[in-house]
Amino acid sequence: MTIYLINGKIVLRQGILADHVLVIRDGKIAEMLLTDEVNDLILKDHQVIDLKGGYICPGWIDIHCHGAVGVDVMDGDIKGLMKIARFKASQGVTGFVPTGITASFDQIERAVEVVAKATEINEDGAKILGFHMEGPFINPAKKGAHQEELIVPCDTAWTRKLKVNVPGRFIVTVAPETEGALDYIREMRKEGVLIAVGHTDGTYDDIRAAYEAGATHGVHTFNGMRGLHHREPGVVGAIMDLPLIAEVIVDGVHLHPAIVRILSKLKLPDKMVLITDAMRAAGLEDGEYELGGLKVWKKGKEARLADGTLAGSTLTMQEAVQNAVRMVGLSIVDVMQMAATNPARLLGLEDRKGSIEIGKNADLTLLTPDLEVRETIIEGRVVYQKFN
């Protein structure tokens, strides 16, 4: 099947390509032709999508998502996971990493088994690209919305057992200052596990040691970690200084826009990733919900525990992209690096996903001129369409 995308601005890593038609064939990006080279005869008998001045973007990848539309990854429900996947696709996401929270080993094992089964189901939703275990190997001092009694030291043997069932990439969040953490990071990196530093009260030196042991990125930078101080740069200072990728939640709640802008000057183009950190209340009305066994109240853009602690977010990737452009003031080219290219590279998928290049998977997010998602295309299939 061949699809022609016409009258759109193609967002490449190098900039925006205008006056071109993007051709999808057999699930791949096949050609980018000058508009003048494409006539009605060529378009005849093929599917044509008219962008009407909108944007053709590389498909977005969310590497940190706990849930949405009433479902949590830890529920262990295949139908629920597919519901999340369909919702993510409606918000422009072509691939995501289901993210668990601190829980018992048995509950985490069950969640991974269900994620693995859901990965095999071919439905009209965002592709499941792995599993992110955000806890229980964290520091109680920076627990956020994690149950303290379930936080434990790093366990290499158990992680190896769990990894066998993880589909795609396995990410583990670690507080590197905790008992046995550095040895754990070294061993897990040898086995291909991605290590994120997060929910940590570590010093600058702790994070540098974690980076040297193989840590790859920082979890929701600035949140759930020791902040920046001019005599002890802390976790934030280490993420800023070292070649660690920085996750950011750009919802106007977790981070002030100026902070995102400052961080972008240090980390763009290739060391910054947009995430949602969304929990089950995303896409739903205000009210009481649950995250990791704790009660959470959603009000507007915020999700908080009873004591006011932020508990994930209710952000969508569409909103994150819009906020990064409008609220922070970043270019759409830079924002696509954060939403697509950098997460694909982190996950080791850059050979086939994350940017618009001939021969790569036709994973595309199509936007109106106002940055609203209008179609989501995964491997050449239109899985979401806002307008008939």
Describe the structure.
It is a single chain. The chain has 388 residues and is an alpha/beta fold. It folds into two domains: 2-57 and 355-385, Urease, subunit C, domain 1, CATH 2.30.40.10; 59-346, Alpha-Beta Barrel (TIM Barrel), CATH 3.20.20.140. Helix content is 27%, strand content 29%. The chain has helices at 40-43, 78-90, 105-119, 156-163, 181-190, 204-213, 234-241, 257-267, 317-326, 332-346, and strands at 2-12, 15-25, 28-34, 47-50, 55-58, 60-65, 67-68, 71-72, 93-101, 127-128, 130-134, 169-174, 194-197, 217-218, 245-249, 272-275, 287-291, 294-299, 302-304, 364-367, 373-378, 381-385. A hairpin with a 2-residue loop joins strand 17 and strand 18. The longest helix is centred in the first third of the chain and has 15 residues, at 105-119. It is globular, with a radius of gyration of 20 Å. The relative contact order is 0.16.
